[in-house]
Specification:
Layout lengths: L2 H22 L2 E9 L9 E5 L2 E5 L2 H14 L3 E5 L8 H6 L2 H10 L3 E3 L9 H10 L4 E2 L3 E3 L4 E2 L4 E6 L2 E9 L3 H4 L8 E3 L2 H14 L5 E7 L2 H10 L5 E4 L10 E3 L2 E4 L7 E10 L4 E11 L9 H18 L2 E5 L12 H14 L3 E5 L10 E4 H7 L5 E8 H12 L6 E4 L1 E5 L9 E6 L2 E2 L5 E7 H4 L2 H5 L9 E6 H12 L1 E2 L7 E3 H10 L2
Parallel strand pairs: 1-4, 4-5, 5-6, 10-12, 12-13, 13-15, 18-28, 19-26, 23-29
Antiparallel strand pairs: 1-16, 2-3, 7-8, 7-11, 9-10, 14-15, 16-17, 18-20, 19-22, 21-26, 21-27, 23-24, 24-25
Helix pairs in contact: 2-9, 4-9, 9-11, 10-15
Length: 512
């Protein structure tokens, strides 16, 4: 017998043996489709696909892709990892109702709560959730008014022979990320305790074959969760907007996340060992939701058009022209941050302005500036507030900012030079206010927004009650819109208001 014939016989025998092994095991294939941090991007976004302009995302395209897999596969589990609210005008105008109406069309098997679901207040969220026809789950948020969890902690679904339990978890930084007045009578529970509690309940009471955590924690926190709870076999996450093109494996746990704004649909195919309560094998990827590659859902398309008509007339108005791209920078000074901080300081007539970098929600290419653009850059409806500090306190605030412990502020009226290589507390090299060295005995006036003022210790390291805060009662984006109309043509630049000598040295080094 020839060698090749022997090879074929051996291969045939191996295939037969493997197939018998698989038949002897109690396996069930499931497909998990997931997305996160949609931020009300109901309309497709401009992008580049293989060096060619294209449009990606959008509710109708996302649902069209989900529909395709639902029609092709038997056991499909559809999960949304939170932050569907906030990001475009329609979400703000309807206080999130638009997103609930659209998700009713998608009909996910479960959604967990992100921090932005609370941007319009807990009462508005509760009213919206009454309209939801899908399961909303969160195991670590307690409602003091009801003496119970804010939502159900988990959901259970039978997928063929496999019984699957999904636990919802939201970020433990919820009170740092949201306005406290939006979280009235809510309390975060210890994640480890509730996770252990509901793992046990799902195993003993529900007798599930697979436990999935649907989280709004971020990839790093998901990894820690996987280390502590290997009983969770799959984590479908959100919050950090991470594009995991293939699953991350930590302690044997499969971790997935699909970027943000509906650009990708997460796809995880898993073979479940029903008897062993484990994942026998898996295959995961992200599918880019490119317009034209799949038929959009017509009902969702009509609903999005209906919602957008509510905002088009007012928000489509061109109010100015941008000569250079506005670009954000979470870790340093940005030209967009400079422009907004300057507008704030001019409006409030203060010495200094602080705008949190995370409050700027999108870049804007040069060209026409529309009302809609300003709403999408500043979607939160924050109001301007003013307060005063002495120079000594201001130095402490800037030391805290230079420590890397807090979200970086975009600034106006102040120039800060620091060195991140030095010890925390000794990093500030110089501070100038209004072009003059900081005077520790002088009183300085500051304008910022109410979210920043609500998190003074987190952002600046000063006690919340150490300053007297006056709310000016004006919404930030209204002032920015008027400023664009007044200036007409805008060319803002990075000017060296925030300088880290360590980064400067590294940049010089990289030039050679």
């Amino acid at each position: 017998m020839k060698f090749k014939q022997v090879q074929r016989l051996l291969l045939t025998f191996l295939v037969f043996v493997l197939s018998q092994i698989l038949l002897s095991q109690n396996l069930e294939k499931i497909l998990i489709l997931h997305w996160n941090d949609f931020h009300s991007q109901n309309v497709p976004m401009r992008s580049i696909c293989s060096d060619t302009p294209c449009y990606v995302g959008g509710t109708a395209n996302l649902l069209g892709l989900i529909n395709k897999f639902r029609s092709e596969e038997k056991n499909v589990l559809v999960l949304n990892a939170g932050d569907d609210f906030q990001g475009t005008p329609i979400s703000s105008l309807t206080k999130g109702r638009s997103q609930i109406e659209l998700m009713n069309l998608i009909n996910p098997d479960a959604m967990t709560l992100g921090n932005h679901e609370f941007d319009y207040g807990r009462d508005a969220l509760e009213e919206n959730l009454k309209l939801a026809k899908f399961k909303v789950i969160c195991a670590n948020l307690w409602d003091k008014r009801k003496g119970n969890l804010f939502t159900k902690p988990y959901t259970v679904k039978n997928l063929g022979k496999a019984k699957v339990g999904v636990i919802g978890l939201t970020t433990p930084e919820l009170f740092k990320l949201s306005l406290r007045e939006n979280l009235k009578d809510l309390e975060l529970l210890d994640i480890e305790k509730v996770t252990r509690q509901y793992i046990n309940e799902l195993k003993t009471k529900e007798k599930v074959d697979l436990i999935i955590a649907l989280t709004h924690l971020g990839v790093q926190a998901d990894s820690l969760l996987a280390v502590k709870f290997p009983e969770i076999k799959i984590i479908i996450g959100g919050h950090s907007h991470t594009v995991l093109k293939e699953p991350k494996i930590v302690n044997g746990v499969i971790i997935c996340q699909a970027g943000s704004r509906g650009e990708y649909l997460g796809y995880l195919e898993a073979m479940i060992d029903v008897d062993g309560d484990s994942v026998y094998s898996y295959k995961g990827k992200l599918i880019r939701v490119v317009e034209g590659t799949v038929k959009p859902d017509e009902v969702a398309l009509k609903k999005v058009e209906e919602l957008e008509k509510m905002v088009d007339k007012e928000f489509g108005q061109v109010i100015g022209k941008l000569e250079v791209d506005w670009k954000r920078n979470f870790y340093g000074e940005s030209n967009l941050g400079n422009w907004e901080a300057d507008v704030m300081r001019e409006f409030a007539k203060t010495d200094i302005a602080f705008q949190n970098s995370g409050g700027l929600r999108k870049d804007l290419p040069k060209g026409d500036i529309k009302v809609r653009d300003i709403w999408e850059i500043n979607p939160f409806g924050n109001t301007f507030v003013v307060f005063e500090v002495d120079g000594k306190t201001l130095r402490k605030m800037m030391e805290w900012q230079a420590s890397g412990k807090a979200e970086l502020m975009q600034v106006s009226g102040i120039k800060v030079v620091f060195d991140s290589r030095k010890k925390i507390g000794e990093r500030i090299i110089s501070i100038e206010v209004g072009g003059k060295p900081l005077d520790e005995n002088r009183i300085y006036s500051i304008v910022t927004n109410n979210w920043v003022a609500d998190h003074l210790y987190d952002l600046f390291g000063i006690p919340q009650n150490s300053v007297k805060i006056k709310n000016l009662g004006v919404v930030d984006r209204d002032i920015f819109i008027e400023a664009v109309k007044k200036q007409k043509v805008i060319k803002s630049e990075v000017e060296g208001r925030i300088i880290d000598l360590a980064k400067q040295k590294e940049e010089i080094k990289n030039e050679y």
